[in-house]
Amino acid sequence: MTRTMKGMVKALALGLAAACGVAVVSGATAEELSLKGKRIGVSAIGTDHYWDLMAFRGIQDRVKELGGEVIALDAGRKDQQQIAQLQTLIAQKPDAIIEQLGNLEVLNPWLQKIRDAGIPLFTVDTATPHAINNTTSNNYNIGAEIALQMVADMGGKGNVLVFNGFYSVPVCKIRYDQLKYVLTSFPDVKIVEPELRDVIPNTVQSAYSNVTDMLTKSPEKGSIGAVWACWDVPQIGATQAVEAAGRNEVKTYGIDGSPEVIKMVMDPKSSAGAVAAQQPYEIGKTSVDNTARYLAGQKVAPFTFVPAVLINKVNAAEKGKPFLDAAEKGGVK
Amino acid sequence: MSATILHAEAGASDEARATGKSAGRRFATLVVRLGAIAAFAAIMAYFVVFAPGFTSTFNLINVVEQSAILGVLAYGMTSVIIGGGSDVTEGGIDLSIAANMGLCAAVYATLLSMGYGDFLSVLAAITVGMAVGALNALAVVGLGILPLLATLAVLNVAAGMELTLTQNTVVGASSPLLAFLVSGSFLGISALAWALIVFSATIIAIIHGTAFGLRLYAVGGHPEAARAAGLSVPFYVSFTYVLSGFCAAVASILTVSRLSASTPGSGELLLSVLAAALLGTVFSRRFVPTMGGTLLSVLFIGLLANGFQLLNVSSYWVNGVQGALILLVVAITSFARGSESSR
C-alpha cells in the first residue's frame, strides 16, 4: 500500500470513528516505530489539570515504549520557568522537542529559537507555525458539537452564561468561535453580557461564585438556560452552583472529559448537560509517533486529529465508561 | 563617618564578648556555616563532573540570563532586609515585590501596546514601581505597621491593580528596547546577562562601597544606636522600600523582554526571591544579608535548576531541594542568632 493510500484509509477510519462516536485507540498501526538512541525533550506549561497530566504522561510513556530517552519538564504553570527550561533544553540539543500548551505569545519566539537551533519541534494542542506537527483534537468539530447539543437541550431559545477567560489560548478561541458561529443560526439563544471570566488557579471556586452571582441576579426560573465553558473545570463549579441554587432547568456544557465531569454527566440528576471528552493520553502518544516517523525520514502532516466523543445525558452510560476506565488505568479517578 | 565608627565599634565589642563567653558556640556556628557552603560547593562539583555541558560558556551565560530577573528582585528584597533588620517576624521584608513587578510589567506592556514609546512606558513603569515602594514605606514607617503585614496588604493592592489593568490576560509587547534586550549582545554575553552584571556591580558598589551603605547596615542592625548617632532611621528604611520598588520596575522590563509580554502569575516568584535573599546570608561571616551573598545564592538557585535538567533529574526535585536549603539556612541563622542573644 502506498503511503498516501495508507494515509487516506487512516483518515477515513478516523473520520468514521469520530462520526460513530467510538473511542478508537489510534496510533496502533502496523508500522514499526522506534526511538532507540534518541533523546526527546518534553516541555509542558503545567500538569495540574487532568488533560495536561494525561497528555504529558502519554508522551513520556510512548517515548520510553519506543526505546527513547525522555527529558521531561513541567513548568508548574510558570511562564518564566518554562522559558528557562526551553532555553536549557535547546543547549542540550535533543533529537526532537515536544511542547505541550502554554501562552503562545510567550512561547513563539522561543519555539522559533528551537527551529533556528535545528531541533525538530512537535506540539501537543498548540497551533504554531514553528511546529512540524501539532497533535490535537478536532476543536472545530468539538466546538460545533457541544454548541449544537446545548442549543438542542435549550429548545433553541434562552440565555447562556459563557466563560471566556482564555480566548488567547488557541483551542479555546476555536471552540468559542464555533459556539458563536452556531448561534448565528439560532438568534433566540443569547449570550449574557458581560461574559464571565474563568481563571487559573481556583477555577472551580471562582466559577461557582460567578455562576451563583449570575443566578441571584436573574432569579426567575428559565431566565438562564445554560452555562458554557471552553474546558470542563469551570463546568464543575458551574454545575455545583446551579444545583446549590436549586435551578435544575440550567444545564452546563464543557470540553475535555475530566473523570469527575464525565461522572456528573452520567448522573441523571446532575445539571451537567454534556461534555466533549478528548483522549489526552492518546494525543500525547500520537505526537510521539509523529516524532518517530519524522525522525525515521517519513513525511508528517502539519496536524493530526485524535477523535473526541460527545458525552450527553442520553449516551453517557455507554460512552462515558471507556473514558473512566482509561482514567483509572492512568491512576486518576 | 560617625556611622562607620559606630558600626566598627559595635562589631568589635560583639566579637570581644563573643570570644569571651561563647567561643564554643561561635565555633559551632562557623562549622555549620562552612558546612552549608561546603554542601553548596559539593552540589556544584557534582554538576561539573556529571552534568553534561554544565560548564560550557553557552550554558553558564544561559544561567546568568535566567537569573537576571530573580537577581534584580532579590537585591530589592535584600536592601529591605538590610535596612529593616533581619528579624524574620519584625524586621524588614517586602512581600509585595513580585506582585509589584507584575503590576509594572502590566503597565509597561499596556502602554507599549497602546503605542506609547519606550521612553514614556519605561518611565511610567518605574514611577509605578517606586510609588508602590513608597506606599510600603508609608505603611511601615509612617503608620508603623509590621512590614510583614504592611507589605502583604500592598501585595494584594498591586495584584488587584494588575488584574484590573490586564483582566488576567496576556498583554503582548514589542519595542526597540525589548528587541535589544532579547537579541543584543556584547563580548559574546547577551544583553539580559549584561543587565544583571551591571545592576549587580552598581548595587554592590552603593551598598558595600559607600558610607551610605554602612549607615544602612547601622540602621538595620542597631536602630537605637543609629538614631543616637544622628541618623534618620525613617529615611533609611523608607529608602529601602522605594529602592525595592525600583528593583521591581527594572525586573518588570526584563520580564517583558523575556516573555515578549506581560503575563499573569508574577507573584509566583516571591518564594524564590525570599529564598535567594535568605540563602545569601550564609555567605556572610556574621549571617547578615549582603548583595554579594544574594548574587551567589541567585546564581546557585539558577544553577540548581539547570544542573538538574542537564542530569535529567525530574524538575519536581528542584522545589524540594530549594525548600530544604531554605530550611537549613533559616535553621543555621536562628542558631547563630540564638548564640548572640543568649550572651
UniProtKB/TrEMBL annotation, chain A:
Keywords: Signal. Residues 40-299 form the Periplasmic binding protein domain. Its main location: other. Residues 1-30 form the signal peptide. It comes from Mesorhizobium escarrei. InterPro entries: Peripla_BP_I, SBP_2_dom. This is Periplasmic binding protein/LacI transcriptional regulator. SUPFAM superfamilies: Periplasmic binding protein-like I. It is found in: Cell envelope. The keyword Transferase does not apply. Belongs to the bacterial solute-binding protein 2 family.
TrEMBL record, chain B:
InterPro entries: ABC_transp_permease (IPR001851). Coiled coil: none annotated. Its main location: membrane. It is a multi-pass membrane protein. The chain crosses the membrane at residues 27-48, 68-85, 97-116, 122-155, 167-187, 193-214, 235-257, 269-288, 295-311, 317-336. Keywords: Cell inner membrane, Cell membrane, Membrane, Transmembrane, Transmembrane helix, Transport. It is found in: Cell membrane. PANTHER family: ABC TRANSPORTER PERMEASE PROTEIN YPHD-RELATED, ABC TRANSPORTER PERMEASE PROTEIN YPHD-RELATED-RELATED. This is Inner-membrane translocator. It comes from Mesorhizobium escarrei.
